[in-house]
Amino acid sequence: MPGRELAYWQAHVEALHQEMQRDPTVIVMGEDVAGGAGRTDKGIIDAWGGPFGTTRGLIKEFGADRVRDTPISETAFIGAAVGAAMAGYRPWVELMYAHFIGVCLDQLLNNAARAHRILGSEHKVKVPIVVKTWLHVEGILYAIFTHIPGLKVVAPSSPYTVKGLLISSIRDDNPVIFCDNLALLRMKGEVPEEPYTIPIGKADVKKEGKDITLVGMSNMTNVCMQAAEKLEKDGINAEVIDLLSLSPLDEDTILASVRRTKHLVVVDEDYPRCSVAKDIAAVVADKAFDYLDAPIKTVNSPHAVPPYNRFLEHLYPPNPEKVAEAARSILR
Amino acid sequence: MTLKREQLIWAYEMMVLIRRLEESLMDAVAQGKPTYVGHPYSGQEAVAVGVCANLNSNDYLFSSHRAKGWALAKGLDLNKVVAEMWGKVTGASMGRGGEMQMADATAGYMGGNVVVASNLPLACGTALAAKLRGKGQVTVCQFGDGASNQGAFHESLNLSAIWKLPVVWLCENNRYAESTPVEYAVSVPNIAERAKAYNIPGVTVDGQDVLAVYDAAGQAVKRARTGEGPTLVEAKTYRYYGHFFGDKTTRYRTQEEEAAFRAKDCILQFKKKVLEQELLTPKDLESADQRVEVKIAGAMKFAEESRYPTVEELLGDVYV
Amino acid sequence: MAVSLVMPMLGDVMEKGTVSRWFKTEGEWVEKGTPIFEVTTDKITYEVEAVDAGVLKQVTPVGQVVPVGGLVGYLLAKGEPVPAVSTAEAPAAVAKAPLKEPEPAPAHAVEARVKASPAARRAAVEHKVDLSQVVGTGPEGRITEDDVIKFVEASGKAKAAPPGGKTIALTGIRKAVAERMWQSLHTMAQLTIAMEVDMTDAVKLRERLISLWEKAENVRVTYTDLIIKAVAMALKEHPLLNSTIAGDELHLLEDINVGMAVAIEGGLIVPVVHHADKKGLLDIAKETKVLAEKARSGDLSLNDVSRGTFTVTTLGVHDVEIFTPIVNPPEVAVLGVGRLVEKPVVYKGEIARRMMMYLSLSFDHRAMDGVPAAAFLRRVKEILERPELIYLFEKR
C-alpha cells in the first residue's frame, strides 16, 4: 500500500499534535502560534496557526493555556520557555526566523545551554525545550547554534524527517534548536500516521555511492541529491549523507563514508566562515586525512549579505550545479 | 504581619551567617587560601532574609550577582555554598558554577546569573509553569538597579502582567550598577515607579529593615500565590564593599556616604529593635552568634578538606 | 652568479633519473670538470661533471628521483646566497651527456615533490611503495590510493614475505628493471608466438666463420650475432616490428638498432648494436664482444644502451626452450632465443638428427596483428635456416 503523503508543514503539525496528546507537559509558545491570541471570547480562534501553519488547529484541541500566543518579546518568551522547562514542562517555542536570534541569544547561550551543567549537583536542572525556527536566505545561521555546547541542533530535510525529528526533539531532555527551512514548507512526501522518532545525533546515508561523499543538511540534502543525479551522468557515483543533526555531529558516519570514497564535498547554505561545512571539513582533515585523495570542498553561500530581491536570491545559495562542479573539480 | 520568636532568631542568625561568610572568605583569601569571594553581599542581608522568610521550599527563587546570601536564605546548605566557592566537588554545582551559577532545585533556589537581567525571563517561565500546575507556587526574581535598564526587565514585566504570572520582581537597589550611580542611570527616583508602565503594583521599601522587607515582600508573595499577578518590590539598600572583592569603592563613593549607611546597618538596627521591644534576649543573640561561628568554621574546614572535581567531572555532562 | 645543477637528459627516452650519490659534500668547493654527482637511470649510472667552479649547494638528497631538467643543486660563488627558486626560469643544463648534445631543459619546470593524495601516501607507507614509481591518474596527475593499490597488485608487492623468508630490496638496476617490465606489461597488449628453427646449417656456418675469424680477427662469432643479423635483415623487410607507439600514432623507425639483453649482477642490461642492418656479421660480432665485456664491467656508455628499436634476449644456455619475453618499451617487439639442441626430426622425408631451436616473439598487439608478426618470425627462421643469405650479404 503506498504511504500517505503530507506536506512538510502538515507533518510538523501532526508531530506536535501527537506529542501534545501524549504528554500534558508539552506546551506551545510563540508569536501568532494561535493567531488573534486565541480570543475565544470574541469568536476568534486559530486565526493563523503559526506564521506558516505549523501549529494550525492546536489551540482548538488544547486550549489557550497550552497554545500560547506571545507578544513580540523574544527575550521574554524564549527565556520563559527555558524557565518553564527548568520547572518541569516541555515547551515548544517558536523563534519566527533564525536571524531574530539577535534579540534573544542570551537566553539560549547563557541559560538554556548551561543550566543543566551548573545548576545543582545531585538534582540537576533539565531544560527540555524545543526552539523551532524558520531558516531562509536572510539568515541560515546554523553555526551560531552549533557553536554552543549544550544545545542540540537538528535540521530535517523532508516531511518524513520533520515529524520523526520533532518527536525526538520534544522527548529529548536537552534544549534542541529545531531548524526548519522555509524552502521545504510545501514539500510533499510519505509520512507514517503513527508517531515515530528519528535519533538525534545520527546522520542518514540517503544514497550510497563509491566515488565521492556529498554531505548536506536541511534543504541542502535535496540539492546534494540533485547534484548526485547530474554526476551520475558523468559516470560519478556519489554518496549523499543527510546530516539531520548538526549538533551533536555524527562524525562516525561521515568519516566512514569518506574513508570509502576518499572525496568529500560539504554543502551548507550558511555563510562560509566558521560554518558547519568548514567544521566538518576540519573534522575530516583531522580524523581521515590519510584517506583523502583530494582536497575537501565546501559549498556555502557567499560571505556577503544576501540580496533582498527574490529574483536574485537564486544566485546566492548553493545549487545542484555548484555542488556538481565542486565534485568534478576534485575528481578530475 | 509579625514574625514569631523562632522566625526572628532565624532571621538574625541568617543575617549574621551571611555577613560572617563573606568576612570568612575574605580572611581566607588574605591568608592565601585557594577560594573566591566574588561579589560580597555584606550590608544587604536584610533584603534576602526578609524576602525568603516568606517562601516555601517549593517556591522558586532566581538570584543574580550577589548570590551567596540569597542562596543561603533560600535554604541552600552552607557546606555546599562554601565548597562551591572553593571550587570543590562537594559544592552545590560540583565546583563548576561558583557564586553565580550554583543552584539547588530541591531548595527552589534556581541560581544566580552572570548576565544582568537574564534571569527575569526565566522567572516568567517558572511562574508560567506554576500557574499551569496550579499549586500556588511563587517565583521571586531578584535583580539590581542596573537590571531595571535592560530590555529583558521591561519585556518580562510586561509578559508577567499580561499573563498574570505568580512572580515577585524584587529589585535590590543598592545605588550602584558596578560604579555607575543609580541617579545617573535610572530615569525615575524610585524604580518601583516603573511598575506603572505595566499596570502592576510597585512598592519601595527600606532594605536595611528586615521586618519592613518581610512585610512588603509578604504582600507581594500573597498576591502572587492567590493569582493576582506580579508585583515590583524595590528594596533600597547599600553594599559595604565594592562591586567585586577588591574593587576600591572610594574611587566612586564618598566615605561620608559609606559611613552614613553603615550607621543604619541592618543587623545593628535589628538587634536594637528586638532588644528594645524585648522580642529577643541578649542571650538569644549571643547563642545565635556562637552557632554561626561553629557553622562557618565547620563549612570552611569541609570545603578545604574536600577534593577538587576531576577533569571529567568539570567538563562532562555537555548534554544530560 | 649561481649555476644550477639539473638532471641531465641522458638519452632520447629518459624522463627522470635518481641522484644516487653526491661526490662532493654540501658547501665544498668544486673545481670545473670534476664529478659532482652520480645519476642512475633505468639504463645506466652516470657521473655528472661540473661545467663551472663553485661552492656546492645540494638541493636533492641521495635516492631522490628527479625529472629531466629538475633542479638538483647549485654551484655558488663564495658567499653567494641560494637563489630563490623561480619556476619561470628554465634551469640551464650543465651536465655533459656523452656523444650527445645537451638537450635544452623543458621550459616548464619540474616539480620535485611527488603529487600524491594523503590516502595514496598512507597506502604507499603501508605497502612500502616508492610513490615516484607510481603514475598518477587523479586531478593534475595526483597519485590516488587506487593508483598505489594497482601498482602494488601489479608488482606483487602486496604479498608479504613468507615467514622466515629473505627480503631483497629492489634497488638500482633491479629496481629499474622491475619498473620497466611492469610498465611494459601495463601499457601494452602483449602476446607471444613461437616457431622452431632448424639451425643445423647455421651451426655449420658458425663453425666455418670461427675458423676463419677467430685468429685473424680475434673474435668468435656467437649464435646471438647470427640471430641479430638475421633479425636486422628481417626488420628491414617488416618495418612494423621496428616501430614505436606515441599516443595515437605508430612511428616506423628508420634506424634498425638491435639490443641484446645481457645478464649482469643484480639485473639485466640491454646494450645496442646500432644500425645492425648496415653492418656485416663480423662487425656485429666484434661489437657484441665489446658490449658484453663493458656490460659485465659496468663500463657501458649511455650511447651503448640508448636508442634500441628491437631486443633479442636469450635463455637458451639455461635450457629454456620457449618463453614469453617482455617487450622493452618503447619498442614493440622482442625475440626470445631458446636452447639449441640436437633432435630427431623429419628432414627431407626421413628422420634425421638436426640442431633445433625455438624462437619466441613477443609483440605489442596494438602495433600489429598476429599475421605480420608471424611473417616476420618466419622470415627470421628462413634466414637462419639458409644462413648463406647472411653470408651472401657479408660478401657484398
Written overview of the protein:
The complex is a heterotrimer of chains A (332), B (320) and C (396). Helix content of chain A is 35%, strand content 18%. Chain A is of the alpha/beta class. Chain A folds into two domains: 5-190, Thiamin diphosphate (ThDP)-binding fold, Pyr/PP domains (Rossmann fold, 3-Layer(aba) Sandwich); 204-331, Rossmann fold, CATH 3.40.50. In chain A, the strands form three sheets. In chain A, strands 3-2-4-5-7-6-12 form a seven-stranded mixed beta sheet, sandwiched between helices. A five-stranded mixed beta sheet of chain A has the order 9-11-10-13-14, with helices on both faces. Chain A has a two-stranded antiparallel sheet with strand order 1-8. In chain A, α7 links the parallel β6 (152-154) and β7 (176-181). In chain A, α1 runs parallel beside α7. Chain A is globular and about 65 Å long. Chain A starts with a strand and ends with a helix. The model of chain A has no long low-confidence stretch (mean pLDDT 94). Chain B has 320 residues and is an alpha/beta fold. Chain B has one domain (5-315): 3-Layer(aba) Sandwich (Rossmann fold). Chain B has a five-stranded parallel beta sheet, sandwiched between helices. In chain B, strands 4-5 form a two-stranded antiparallel sheet. The longest helix of chain B is centred in the N-terminal third of the chain and has 26 residues, at 5-30. Chain B is globular and about 50 Å long. The mean pLDDT of chain B is 96. Chain C is of the alpha+beta class and 396 residues long. Chain C has three domains: 1-111, OB fold (Dihydrolipoamide Acetyltransferase, E2P) (Beta Barrel); 118-170, Dihydrolipoamide Transferase (Irregular), CATH 4.10.320; 188-395, Chloramphenicol acetyltransferase-like domain (Chloramphenicol Acetyltransferase, 2-Layer Sandwich). Chain C has a six-stranded mixed beta sheet with strand order 9-18-17-16-12-15, with helices on one face. Chain C has a four-stranded antiparallel beta sheet with strand order 1-8-6-3, with no helix packed on it. In chain C, strands 5-4-2-7 form a four-stranded antiparallel beta sheet, with no helix packed on it. Chain C is globular. Chain C starts with a strand and ends with a helix. The A-B interface holds A 27, 65-66, 70-71, 73, 75-89, 91, 103, 106-107, 110-111, 114-126, 149-150, 152, 173-174, 248 and B 60, 80, 91-94, 96-97, 101-106, 110-111, 113-115, 118, 120-130, 132-133, 151-152, 155-156, 158-159, 162, 317-320.
